[in-house]
Amino acid sequence: MPRAWNFSAGPATLPEPVLRTAQSEMLEWRDAGASIVEISHRGPEFMEVAAAAESALRTLLSVPTDYAVLFTQGGATTQQALIPLNFAAPGQPADYVITGHWGKTAMKQAQPVIATHVAATSEADNYRSIPARDTWQFAADSAYVHITANETIHGVEFRDIPDTGDIPLIADFSSSIASEPLDISKFGIVYAGAQKNLGPVGISVAIVRRDLLERAGQPRADIFDYRSQLKAESMLNTPPTWNWYMLGLNVQWMLDEGGVAEFARRNARKAALLYSAIDGSGGFYRNEVQPAVRSRMNVPFFLRDEALEKAFLAESKAAGLLALKGHRAVGGMRASIYNAMPEAGVQALADFMQDFATRNG
Ligand code: PMP
Known about the structure:
single chain; Aspartate Aminotransferase, domain 2; Aspartate Aminotransferase, domain 1; 3-stranded antiparallel β-sheet; 9 helices; 34% helix; binds 4'-deoxy-4'-aminopyridoxal-5'-phosphate; pyridoxal phosphate binding; Pser_aminoTfrase; aminotransferase; pyridoxine biosynthesis
């Protein structure tokens, strides 16, 4: 049975060459005499893997030198809890722009430790848009403004970087990092869980402007301190070595394929193909997000006749198209089409959708 086209939102499909390299190195990494997951993270072999991963990531994302790169555990949600601890002083407010489920989650993680303030929200239209920048209102003495660059569940993506003036912009790029060129210098912090565009779940990346690391933040354990983590080269405790290694392979694969400019072109073509399959279906399928902010990575869609959902899922799975069920928070269907999803996979999905609509329309 060949591998299916996997549209899972995360953990998500990984490039086959990356999986094959990992497979070939599983029993023994180079001439280490053991697999990379069986040896010390402080030994020369893993130190080489870790340094190569960071260097490749810096190249892929054009990370400026005045930004630190941290590799952390606990997923993007843990970052959301650590950000207020590290970057807001006791009693200081911070702003959140809520454009979907993950923005709400980010704010919830901050609520126990700071006074969160909603600068803008698209809740009134069920997160189908992004509030215009000139409607945002910041708290006085705000520590930062947090946005979710791409809302994985609601399928809404910022297409411009908002200007927040002197207030550092912190962005959750979990589901769109490395999908196109990005000017990191416009951000205070860019962070992402790995399990969509960067590798397997179990490791996250935080790209932090170094001057922000001078902020005192809140009382916190050393392990939750970005400065301590940076000093320890993200190895204050045992890091997730397998995930770090896999991330490195995946980032190198993206570089070999042509880097973020090439993925931007592929992703634009894939998204155009899928949205036109939806928009051209005469209403059989629909996507409700404002076209200007439709996500290029996560495409939620609904069937006009909800009673057909079960058949759509069963038949798509039988046709080798996996994980198209929408998130329970919004229902319907969703196709996640990250960097590792080839154009052929999206074409197969568009063809299936057209055929299903013809048979059931
Ligand atoms: N932010 C976004 C945009 C996400 O898509 C996700 C996970 N799907 C998260 C945060 C939470 O990530 P994690 O499960 O790694 O904590």
